[in-house]
Give the backbone structure.
Amino acid sequence: MSAPPNQRPAVAKALRMAFGTDELDAWTPLSGGLSGAEVWRVRVGGIAYLLRVEAPARDALRDPHRGYHCMRLAAEACLAPRVRHADPDDGVMILDHVEARASVLDHPGPRAELVVELGHALRALHAIEGFPPLVDYLDGLDALVGQAGRSGVVPLDAFDPWPRLHAVCQRLRPEPVSSHNDLNPRNLLHDGRRVWLIDWEAAFRADRYVDLAAIANTFAADSEAEALLLATYFGRAASADERARLWLFRQVSHVFHAAIFVAGVAGRARASSLDGPDLDAIHRGLALGEPLLDTPEGRLAYGLARLRTAAASLASPAFAEAAAVAA
C-alpha cells in the first residue's frame, strides 16, 4: 500500500489551510480518470472530501490558474462541488466529496428528466461571468486534429473530412460564453438527486454550442430529445438556424473526442483501419459499467467510433443543408 497522501508536504499544507489539521481519519485511492491526476477520498473529522493532486503543468490548453478559477466560479453557482482548497501552484485541490450513486449514462429516471436537468445546468453555466478567453475553439481543435493525424495511430487520411467542417463553422457568428468544453460522461456525476459538473481543466470562454453539442451527442441522440434540450436551454422552441448550428457542432464534438483520444494513445496503440464497434454500442457498454476506456485500445476504439460518426454525417446531404441554414 502506498504512503498516505498527507505525508506529502503540499498535501499537508493544503489540509492545514482547509481544516486546521493535516491528520486524516482515513484515505482511499480513487481513479483519476484520463487526466493522470492522483485522486483520493479522504476523511477529516469524520467527513469525506475529495483530494486531487496533479502536476501543475502548463501548455497551450492547460493552465491550473485558469482551470481552478473557472472551477471556483462553477462551485459558487452550485454546478460543481464546493471548493475547500485549491492551489494551482502546488496542483492540490480539496473538494466536498460527491458520492456517485449511478453512472449518468444509466440515469435512474426517465431520459427526458436528465435532458431537462442538463439543459438547465448548461443555461446556468453559460450565464456565469468571469471565465477568461483562451484560444478560438475551432483553431485550437484544428491544431489538435493535426497532432492526432500525425501521431501514427491512424491512417493519414483519417481526419480528411475535418477541413470542410472547420471552414463552415468558422463562417458562423461566434456566441462566446463561459464553457466547460469537455462534458463527457466521466465529467458528470449523479448523486441520486442531481448532476454535478467536474474537472474544469479545459474550461474557458468558447461558443455555447461546444457544450450543447457534447451533451446532445451523448444524451439527446434523437430529434425529440434534442428539441427538448434546446427548448430547456433557450426557454423556447429552437429556431431552424439554432438547430442547424447544433447539428454542425455535434460533428465538431465528435471530431474533438476522436482527436483527443487518438492523440492520447500515441505510442501505445495503433489502428490499421477505421473499423470497429459503433458509438451507440460503446455508450451502452459504458452505461453498464464496462471498463472500455481504461486501456489504450479501448480509448482508441472510442475515438474511432466518434470519427466514423462524424465522417458519415459530413458525407450526408444533411451537412450541406445545415451549413446553408446556419449561415
Remarks:
- The longest strand covers residues 38-44.
- Residues 104-326 form a domain with the Aminoglycoside 3'-phosphotransferase; Chain: A, domain 2 fold (CATH 3.90.1200.10).
- The chain has a mean pLDDT of 93.
